[in-house]
Amino acid sequence: MFIGSLQAMPDTSPAGALPSTGLTLGNYREINAQVHLVRSLVNSGIFTGGVIACTVVFGVLAGYALARLRFRGRGTLFAVVLLVQVVPFQLLLIPLYVLIVRSYGLADSYPGMILPYAINTTAVFVFRQFFLQLPDELFAAARVDGAGEVRILRSVALPLVRPALLTVVLLTFIGPWNEFLWPFLITKQTDMQPLAVSLANYISNVAARAANPYGAVLAGACVLAAPAVALFIVFQRYFTSTNIGSGVKG
């Protein structure tokens, strides 16, 4: 994909996947002139960053409550969380659109794009399972010392579930970063559209008129994929199991 984005003329043969002479950055200039890559990347960063922040905050709170707090209906509530995961997001598009645009008046806004993704049941499930693995003795000792639930969550639980936190961040990042349908429905303003939406519009309306449409599309795909690859490379060293039993004797 990267080599194809640098080719002046498209070469779809197997040999075209190997570096060759005549490589150019013209495809990147071509697509930047049409979709403004920097502005689209900033929009994607705002959209994705807001979704990640909401997912982590609500996922941690809900996962901790389902794992460590005792209240009536906890099992039923967790079953509902699992049930929500089998509902395709496409079935919710129309009611969500009516709710966000007509009821809340959040069309052409970043909150309108972020709110439908603010709570991720998969993140809740992942955090709950990790919190369940923590030794009960750690929480009992913290309560004996007078710590409240918020202090226990912040000082005891969160430092031990770093692998889950990083996993949720990476999995959450991939979805909204590549999402183009929902942001396209919420805003038609080109200066607010994420990169995935801009690329979809480019492929549909402009690519056929480019000097090298394949190269321009591949250039946009490389720009879209680069942050996800970089994030995985940075985080992969942390995808190790924490020694959750190190805080207790025996």
Key terms:
250 residues; mainly alpha; elongated; transmembrane helix; membrane
Describe the protein's architecture and organization.
This protein has 250 residues and is mainly α. The chain has a single domain (2-238), classed as MetI-like fold (Orthogonal Bundle), CATH 1.10.3720.10. The protein has 13 helices and no strands. It has helices spanning 2-6, 26-35, 37-68, 74-84, 93-103, 110-114, 121-133, 136-144, 149-157, 162-178, 181-186, 195-205, 213-235. α2 (26-35) crosses α13. The protein is elongated and about 70 Å long.
Instruction: Find the count of extended strands (DSSP E, 2+ residues).
Output: 0
Which range best describes the helical content: under 10%, 10-25%, 25-40%, 40-55%, 55-70% or over 70%? Answer: 55-70%
Give the low-pLDDT segments.
242-246
What fraction of residues sit in β-strands? under 5%
Determine and state the CATH class: Mainly Alpha
The CATH superfamily turns out to be MetI-like
Radius of gyration over C-alpha positions, nearest whole angstrom:
23 Å
- Here the CATH topology equals MetI-like fold
Query: What class do helices, strands and sheet pairing give?
Result: mainly alpha
Total domain units: 1
Main sheet specs: none
Family: Belongs to the binding-protein-dependent transport system permease family.
Pfam family, one: BPD_transp_1
Transmembrane segments: 46-66, 78-100, 112-131, 152-174, 214-235
Membrane topology: Multi-pass membrane protein
